[in-house]
Design brief:
mainly alpha; 78% helix; 65 residues
Length: 65
């Protein structure tokens, strides 16, 4: 694997981890009935941005379904 490919893999793993962490935080806030908070809305925005990035990886065949 080339250095560039390793960097792409590292980036993908970081995005997946951040996405999973964001979803976990959102679930915790949801269980606390805090879905109308600014924090929850910021997390939702982050989640959408990360989903977009992961979708692009998928479109270009860089992410297995």
């Amino acid at each position: 694997m080339s250095e560039r490919e390793e960097k792409f893999e590292k980036m993908l793993q970081a995005i997946q981890k951040e996405y999973n962490d964001t979803v976990s935080k959102m679930e915790k806030l949801k269980m606390e009935d805090k879905t109308k908070t600014v924090t929850y809305k910021q997390l939702m925005s982050t989640k959408v941005a990360l989903q977009n990035m992961l979708s692009r990886y998928e479109i270009y065949g860089l992410l297995e379904k």
